[in-house]
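Task: sequence in, structure out. Protein: Alkaline shock response membrane anchor protein AmaP.
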Amino acid sequence: MHADRASRVLLGLIGLTLTAAGVASLLAGGGRLGADLPDSPVLDSTVIRFAAENSTWWWPAVAATGVVMALLGGWWLLAVLFSTDRIHGVRLATDPTAGATTLTSGAVNHAIDAEIEAYRGVRAANSRLLGTPEEPELAVNVTVDQSADIGALSQRIEIGALTHARQALGRPDLPAALDITVSRRPAGRVDRAYQLP
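Result:
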């Protein structure tokens, strides 16, 4: 997820800020930052007087700021939860003077899924192109019957569908992750996972 890195940085900064504020509050409340701080009000009289004198616009501004912050937080949360590194297409290696050729990820995914689903023992396949158009990666999830030979099937997928995808994209070194799930297993979703080169 592209949002992961930004989210980690943002959450780290927020965490450090809140930790510093919490430590400062504890030190101030314990009298470590001055003997008079534990008994002093959080807001001094100047701030209270300013808010009272400008109450016609001050409190609506505070409320509007809170609403904007809540909306931004909700938008950020949705972006983190539902965004992916999926890409819309892959740029094929062609002659630069002839222009750029892009193959849509939907076409690639459909072809990979259709080929894998034709293999014996496969119930469903779902592939996704991730990363960037210049440096794509392939993630393939396959659900198989309980009687399927996982080793033979993973080898067939690697030699067949993944090799064909690499050839179609002109990327023999395309990284691919293959996740094979056995259907109707009460213990959990993933039976075995293979990380392919």
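The chain has two domains: 2-82, 89-196.
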